[in-house]
């Protein structure tokens, strides 16, 4: 069989499609959850911070468990924990219990990533890069589906919790599906391949590494701010109704999906990853400025789409450049970027909730504008360092 692990890949991709829904589930249901939990809307963003805390505290443990016990048990456990989070959150009326469920979601994220990424790498050795990039595409599809599902339930006056229950049921089915299928062994690299990685020297230092870690933090921050606060900004500032404000996330996710597909093509033949790292936040800066200074409701869907187009691929670009610059320590280097992403998920919702509470939701997007500018500056710095070292080595 040409693809012996095709069933495993399909299951993992469906898991990440559901993860794309989960990632914006709390933000998309902010008003419903605040009413049910009897808290302010800004307090719901704290739940998103707790997801980041759960991911940060569990990611190293999950990685060790993956290497010790294999990928399959972690993927199964992640699906079950996500089902618990999705069933429990809309049913509880206690904020403290909702915090616990949010922590479960963060742990689930660590388990799924630690199992799925290595499994795809080991199961599709001839095209592991493509297999892994496609995860982001499936997440974007999930993020497109969820707002439409929510607006359907709103239009028919159906309990908002069903938007949680449907992916919960699918995760439960996936956990049983993964039990029945085969995963690859953990040791798939030839000794010669491992040696060549270890023998490749790291030509760059801590400054370049730190810049990439910060870019990883900023990349997640950019998308996190938009996914969390764009519906609120649409309602409070652009004066959209609740339905149209939530639909902005669908346009954002469409742009994100196209971004990944376009990058997959462009990075092969046309542009280098470091060039894309300059272009994407640079254009995102312009689009954020348009969002802040042009409050035309008819432009809002187009702005949301282009924000997705020029912010969604930054994290993957940071990972790609980090691996290229530090070939002798790929695992350690990538873990730093992943940890930075976890910190962003934890810290940014808290910062933005304080900005919204004390200044207003517009301040959140001025903050995002500053992040885009700083990301562009750091990418330009890295590009200069890479060019300088290339001249020296030549």
Give an account of the 3D structure:
By secondary structure, the protein is mainly α. Helices cover 84% and strands 0% of the residues. It has 16 helices and no strands. Helix 10 (206-236) packs parallel to helix 15 (330-358). The termini are far apart. The model is unreliable at 187-200 (pLDDT under 50).
Which descriptors would you attach to this protein?
single chain; 394 residues; mainly alpha; 16 helices; globular
State the helicity in percent bands. Answer: over 70%
Unreliable stretches: 187-200
SSE run:
HHHHHHHHHHHHHHHH
Structural class: mainly alpha
Q: How much of the sequence is in beta strands? A: under 5%
- Rg over CA atoms: 21 Å
How far apart lie the N and C ends? Answer: 45 Å
Beta strand count: 0
Major sheet size, sense and barrel closure: none
Overall average pLDDT:
83
Count every helix, treating DSSP H or I runs of 4 or more residues as helices. 16
Query: What gross morphology would you assign?
Result: globular
Summarize the structure.
This protein has 394 residues and is mainly α. The chain has helices spanning 6-23, 25-28, 30-37, 41-69, 71-91, 95-123, 128-155, 162-180, 191-199, 206-236, 242-269, 273-293, 300-311, 314-325, 330-358, 361-393. α5 (71-91) runs antiparallel to α8 and α11 (242-269) packs parallel to α13 (300-311).
Topology:
Layout: H1 6-23, H2 25-28, H3 30-37, H4 41-69, H5 71-91, H6 95-123, H7 128-155, H8 162-180, H9 191-199, H10 206-236, H11 242-269, H12 273-293, H13 300-311, H14 314-325, H15 330-358, H16 361-393
Helix pairs in contact: 1-6, 1-7, 1-8, 3-4, 4-5, 4-6, 4-15, 5-6, 5-8, 6-7, 7-11, 10-11, 10-13, 10-14, 10-15, 10-16, 11-13, 12-13, 12-14, 12-16, 14-15, 15-16
